[in-house]
């Protein structure tokens, strides 16, 4: 599963992990992606989305119908 949020578009960030002696190693900061299943009344079916923790909060605030409408408008398959 790709570490991309379908709602917010959050993608992994890249940087360094730095040890006590200040040696640097490449690392990847993944967003907190969860696979969530929602009932969408306008489509009259369940939809499974890969969303970050912040994306879940956006769905709670705006409503699943509005969020799914935006995803469909972007041309993403649900």
Automatic annotation (TrEMBL):
HAMAP family the record matches: Ribosomal_bL28
The keyword ATP-binding is annotated on this UniProt entry: no
NCBIfam families assigned to the protein according to its UniProt record, in alphabetical order: L28 (TIGR00009)
GO MF annotation terms: structural constituent of ribosome
PANTHER family linked: 39S RIBOSOMAL PROTEIN L28, MITOCHONDRIAL (PTHR13528), LARGE RIBOSOMAL SUBUNIT PROTEIN BL28M (PTHR13528:SF2)
GO annotation, cellular component aspect: ribonucleoprotein complex; ribosome
Family assignment from sequence similarity: Belongs to the bacterial ribosomal protein bL28 family.
InterPro entries referenced in this protein's UniProt entry, alphabetically: Ribosomal_bL28, Ribosomal_bL28/bL31-like_sf, Ribosomal_bL28_bact-type, Ribosomal_bL28_sf
Protein name: Large ribosomal subunit protein bL28
Protein source organism: Rothia kristinae
Gene that this sequence comes from: rpmB
